[in-house]
Structure formats: structure tokens, C-alpha cells
Amino acid sequence: MACNFRAAMSRHLILIASALSLALALPAARAEKADRLKPMVFTAEKQGRLDGVNQRTELQGNVIITKGTLLLKAEKVDVRETRDGYHQAFASGVAGQPVTFRQARDVPGESIDGVANQLEYDTRTETVRFIGNATVRRLRGTSVAEEVTGAVIVYDSRTEVFTLEGGSASPNPNGRTRIVMMPRVQPGDEAASAPAAPLPLKPSTTLQPGKPS
């Protein structure tokens, strides 16, 4: 009996170990943007500075950063690489020419578009921080689906969650935050979604009118 029990327990432990090995070998079941695997490319019109010792790059003059569908434009950008290979970009604009940011969403045909006086982008956390007179829109094609404005807006591209902060640098009166959500049904779509009109009644060709009794 004892031998049979130990054999059964041994087989049970082997099955558990095999299941754990299989689970660890399977890829993580989570959606990841293709942009994460794309290289980050920098271009600028004016002088730049590359500090290999401190892993820091400074660019000026119509700086453009691309990473897959991500597109960032600014007058000045300071990029720092962390020890584990991630990048932190600090971008700033000039009067009348703020920093702009655009990135496609996982939803086909949708993208995130934003402007601010300054911007911070972290490839580790995949967050974008819009600072000063910030406006961020979710576009469905070329139409605005949602718009948020405030002094500071933090966008987490992994969770697609916006965090808003008010303050004196907000474009809204009294430094308030503001959210605008457009209806999904646009003008002109009502006719397409409305139920069809009832067909007109026609006289019967088989029924005979009743006779008075």
C-alpha cells in the first residue's frame, strides 16, 4: 500500500512539474504594440550633441523622432538612455510652435494626437506626459472622438488611460480640466440607422367585401 501511494504521488508530482514547465514556455497572452520593437530614429536641422559616456543625445531645430507609428516633433529634444536600454525623451517647443505627438492605436483607423509646451516620453513605461497648455485627442480616422485639455495630461499607451491635472498652465478658463466626448452617430448617419418606413397598404385581391344581412 505504501509503495503504491509513493508511486502515485511521484506520478502526480511529475505531472505538476510538466504542467509548470509548459506554462513557463508559453508566450505571455497580452497584446503588445508593434511600435515597442521598432527602432527610435532622430533627425534635426541644427547642431546636436551626442554624449556616449552619459548616454545622452541633444538635438535642436525642427527635431523629429519616429518609432514605428509614433511621430514626435519639437524644437529641442534631450534623450537619455537608461542602463537597461530604455529611453527617456524630454521635448520642448517655442512660442507659437508647441510639441506635437501622434501614435496609432491598436484599434484600426484610430490614433492619439496631442500638443503641449513640453513633453516627456518614457519607453519603459510607455507613457507620454504633456506639460503646459496640453490638448490630447483620440481620432477616429480624421474625426475627433474624444478631446481632453488641461495643464498636464499623462497618457499611458499600455492601458490607454488618461490622467489630467488642472492649473495655471491649462488652456481652459480658471485652470480647469476639460473632456469632450463626441457621439458615435454623426450627422447624416441617422437615416442609415433609422428603421425602414412601413410599406403602404394595398387592397386585397382575394377577399370579397361583406354583404349586409
From TrEMBL:
Keywords: Periplasm, Signal, Transport. The lineage of its organism: Bacteria, Pseudomonadati, Pseudomonadota, Betaproteobacteria, Burkholderiales. GO terms for molecular function: glycolipid transfer activity; lipopolysaccharide binding. Involved in the assembly of lipopolysaccharide (LPS). Required for the translocation of LPS from the inner membrane to the outer membrane. GO terms for cellular component: cell outer membrane; outer membrane-bounded periplasmic space. Belongs to the LptA family. The keyword Electron transport does not apply. GO terms for biological process: Gram-negative-bacterium-type cell outer membrane assembly; lipopolysaccharide transport. Residues 49-160 form the Organic solvent tolerance-like N-terminal domain. NCBIfam families: outer_YhbN_LptA (TIGR03002). The gene is lptA. Gene3D superfamilies: Lipopolysaccharide (LPS) transport protein A like domain. This is Lipopolysaccharide export system protein LptA. Component of the lipopolysaccharide transport and assembly complex. Residues 183-213 are annotated as: Disordered. It holds the Pfam family LptD_N. It is found in: Periplasm. Residues 1-30 form the signal peptide. It comes from the Bacteria.
